[in-house]
Design brief:
Distance between the termini: 113 Å
Number of strands: 0
CATH topology of the largest domain: Four Helix Bundle (Hemerythrin (Met), subunit A)
Structural class: mainly alpha
Helix content: over 70%
Number of helices: 9
CATH class of the largest domain: Mainly Alpha
CATH superfamily of the largest domain: Oxygen-evolving enhancer protein 3 (PsbQ), four-helix up-down bundle
Largest sheet: none
Length: 182
Amino acid sequence: MADATFLASPLPCPTATSRWQQVWQQLRNGLRQLVVVALALVLSISLVACEGKAKAAPTISPEDMALITRQAEGFLAARDRLPELATLVNERNWVFTRNLIHGPMQEVSREMLYINKRLLPADRPEAEARATTLKTALAQLDEAARLQDSEALRKSYIKVASGFGLYAQVLPEQVKIDLKQV
């Protein structure tokens, strides 16, 4: 009876079936490797295509450079009045000190604002900080002259002179060259 159950159960043919399974397995492995290579190739090509040309360093447009130059002329004209302001401060001439601040130097804030808007985005925060420092120093100088406080006037003048010098450093090199500041 044991022979009958043995004959009733199907026996796989060891040579034909295992050979087809081996071929199929090799084919699947080969296709997987082909897909991986194709995917790597497609990704490499797409990365190269997306990269495009190397980006040039950001530059200021000629229109913006012209506007910065025009505004810098006014800024530098006010800076050139610093010796006159120093004389008024040393003489404790309260009225003419305030007149100079509210007259020829009044436009400095506006000029710095226009310059800051046209600078490169990376340079703007530093320029704005320096402009704020200079405007604050001018306001303190005006207040010291109004109060006729000679010690505060002297200290404020030093801050104003320093503020003009620091802000002039943020001007683009081309503007400094054009305006003969180098």
